[in-house]
Write a structure and sequence with these properties.
By secondary structure, the protein is an alpha+beta fold. It has three domains: 162 residues, no CATH class; 229 residues, no CATH class; 240 residues, no CATH class. It contains 25 helices and 19 strands. It has an eight-stranded antiparallel β-sheet with strand order 12-11-10-6-5-17-18-19. Helix 15 links the parallel strand 1 and strand 2. Helix 11 crosses helix 17 and helix 14 packs across helix 15. The longest helix has 23 residues.
Amino acid sequence: MIYHEFWKEENESVRERYELSLERIAAMETERTVAEPYRQYFVHIARFIRMVSDVFRRTEGAAFRQAGLAELQEVNRRLYEDILPKQYEESYANPACAVKRLGPELGAVLSYLYAEIRGQIAFAHECRLTEMTILNELFIEIYNLFEVDIPSCETVQEIIYWFVSDYADVTVPYRIRETLDPTLPFAKELVMETDLSDVRYLYFYGEYVSEEELAVARFMNRLPQDTIDKMADTYTEGYRKGFQVMGRNLSVKKTVQIIYPIGFERMVRKAILNFRAMGLEPVLYRKAVWSSDKKNGSSNGYSGTSPNRQYDYDHRYDNALYLQKAYTDRKLSVQRSAYETYRKEAARYGGPAVIDTFGESGFQPVNKPEAFSLSGKQEKLALSNASESARLSNQYVPGDETSFTIIAFPKPEIGPDFEKIFAETIRINTLDYEVYKKIQQNIVDRLDRAEHVIVTGRGNNHTHMKIMLHKLEKPESQTNFENCVADVNIPLGEVFTSPVLAGTEGVLEVSSVYLYDIQFKNLRLEFKDGRIAGYSCDNFPDREEGRKLIKQRILKNHETLPIGEFAIGTNTVAYAMARRFGIIEKLPILIVEKMGPHFAVGDTCYNWSEDVAVYNPDGKEIIARDNEISILRKEDLSRAYFNCHTDITIPYSELGEIYGVSRTGEKLPVIADGRFVVPGTEILNEALEENA
């Protein structure tokens, strides 16, 4: 099936409305019924809408697939040029520019409107005419207000509120459907039926295509098939092992999400074949388009390189325009109805399989007062809504019945050693499971003798953390630490636990860590009874701006978060590679967490499935699945989870000691002066000596 035919019946039902809306929008370019400076804004957006409508017509008629590479590149450039860094300062999509040109009240609202309308790029490429139509009609309704007189900001905001609320019946069910329904054909058709040796296919997505995507696709096309197979096999086997290790039944699952960066289609194609051999049909879906589907401006799904990370950052809280209790209640009601509609698909869903990338330079955001931000009341409402949504999702997709896997590869932006780093990453991702299982068991055995663990930094790193452990009532059959090798988190290399919060305290410092596309500099977190009691970073001259950034990105706007995980990374091979190529600060947390001790703030690793018994390869049950907060689920589910889990790692170069302390006061060293000292772990130090 050609994907545009999938929506043919629905498109025909709204086509007359769409054509009428286009006629009205086209007339805006010559009309003089709106006063300046607003007329210029509406003409600019009208021209953008007409440009996107041309893409839709050519896509629907299949002519877009026949265009040459140069033409496709020109179309892609024109679609995204308005938000690229060079043009962005003079773009209505920039809240600062919109406010400067259109006034402090209406400017920010109209910037939001343009950002939302830009979602038509994705809808046009997918031939989803309903979404394009309702956006056109919203644009016309607001334009009509300005024809009468300059409306108040409150009037425009009210129209937007009712648009988002009324059309939740369209947007919310589709978002749930596209994450669960394997019959949606758009991306899967591109991956499985397009000639991937012809990089024109990248432009059929509707995502921004930078030199990165082109370079990745061309590089992947040069790789021999056995290398592609090795990458895909490691990835899909990790997913299978995840079910096995967690004691969950994969045979009852029928679907798996594949989340990937465009350019990796050769690997994805092989992964799809592998998953199908397991009895799983993949679901491929785009990152969220509507602001109402994003969390702090981000979301999961396939995507290209962001055309402008500052643009994404500026619009991360656009939902402040309409975030009210009545709206969140309605959205939850629609979500519940949608899950009922897709109950069967939800029951068959096995969980996500993620391909991540790394190599981008650290992003230093600019906090603009013109951009929307959540009020204190809205922050609490957003957190409450996220918690309710998570509980609802867990009713239909129980967390104790699913699994996941995640793997990462470098992008060309990482530097001239890209191909060497890529090859090294494949090697790291395929290290010997059995070797590390034995090494890590030695660490687990030593730590199981401890009452608590001490972690210290060295040099300019002033980390000093005390981590309390659960008491092992039956040490012959129980353990505190999971011996984690290559399954859900690739590459292998860590032992981890969920600490006891009472008595867990101290200071955690990291000179540089890359979290959620932002490089945090000199990050410092203070803990008391296992909860964050203070925090700072050096990202901005104004320390308060740094605190706001931490609260938004790490605390997810909570006032505090507990330590959900303490782990010791053992993948010294990854660390040596990172030091050799000078890329530590460009690595994703997925790899960095294996390169030293790390602490996760938020939920435990076992959230939503704490009651499911988990065992190490030696047969011992891991009892440290709960803490004092997660156990509250037995009394009040709303108090048990934070719906976030952020790992923060101390690299070996900044690490002093890690040692356990027994109940009798015996010191049980694990790492001293940045080197492993537990008998049976000596091989881990060989890689560390490379860069000594």
